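Hi there,

I know you've been waiting on this one. I reran it after we fixed the sequence typo, so this is the corrected version. Both the input and the resulting structure follow.
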Amino acid sequence: MIIRRPHQQNFTVIDNQAIHDADLSLKATGLLCYLLSLPPDWDVSGRALANMKKDGGEAVYSGLKELEATGKDRGQVVE
C-alpha cells in the first residue's frame, strides 16, 4: 500500500513521462529521480552516489551508463 501525504517543503516534482519511460529499468528510473532531487549545481559523482546509498559502485555506474545511453543524464559524470 502506498500512502500519499501532502507536502509543503522538501519535495521534488518529477515529470511522469520520465518515470513511466519504458526504455529505462527501474534502477535507472530510481537513480534519475534521486539525481533530480539534488541541487542543479551538484557534480554527478559515481563514487559519491555509491557512498550515499547501499547499492555499491557497480550498480550506480551501470545505472548512470543507462541514463547516458538514453540521453537522460544531467551531463558529465565525475568519477
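Quick highlight: The mean pLDDT is 84.

Best,
R. S.
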